[in-house]
Model the fold of this input.
Amino acid sequence: MDSVEKTTNRSEQKSRKFLKSLIRKQPQELLLVIGTGVSAAVAPGIPALCSWRSCIEAVIEAAEQLEVLHPGDVAEFRRKVTKDRDLLVVAHDLIRKMSPRTGDAKPSFFQDCLMEVFDDLEQHIRSPVVLQSILSLMDRGAMVLTTNYDNLLEAFGRRQNKPMESLDLKDKTKEVLQNLYRTKSFLFVGCGETLRDQIFQALFLYSVPNKVDLEHYMLVLKENEDHFFKHQADMLLHGIKVVSYGDCFDHFPGYVQDLATQICKQQSPGNACQDCAKRKLEENGIEVSKKRTQSDTDDAGGS
Done:
């Protein structure tokens, strides 16, 4: 075996290491936060799923084609996408620009632009292993909170005759979400930019007390060791354990699949299922409604 092959094997082996504190969790103890990275892994080749910048650029292009944004605003947002570092702020500004000037009221042209960008997205699924892994965890009681503009997870569930039950960041009150953050272990999957979102930070990172008593997890790409270990130390102060799935995005699907397999091996008391987990939340006063798809809701997705 030559040195290149040995190095590759070591990298693959390292990417399959798991924290015992995570894989020994019961599925119903987990709340998965699904980010754009999941969609990018499932439907590679779709520009709008490759990055936040690509997604915002695609929405701006759709807004121009549909004539729901003034040409001057189109030019301004294109400038912001090129120059501004905080793309999440740009995204929120874009949503507000295409929404009524009455706070969080409906309707909004932003949803029409999303439908234009992500039309028939399920037809582009090429690597469903990550979605299958998420579905297997949900079947065993894990809850899901989606932050994506696309509806790949829901579309995949329909194809499997398993409609998704999930939590939507904007549909829940601050108190309910923070209660979940205190009582469940959040597992952030494909959420590179989500934790930089000001709304998310205000809800969780800076508002929930006794953060060091919590135990949450985040899967990330380790591109740079110094940046990775600094990020790891910073997030640990918020009760979040940052875990690398490898130094290449290609490792992501396999890591998620193996991780889900390990967690699903845990035998839940009474073999708790998704319906049981949903009932338990509702008994505690937390209403969980079916996640609607882009075609039948007027609300914009999360970040």
Q: What stands out?
A: Confidence is low (pLDDT under 50) at residues 1-15, 284-303. Residues 52-66 form the longest helix (15 residues). The CA atoms of residues 195 and 277 lie 26 Å apart.
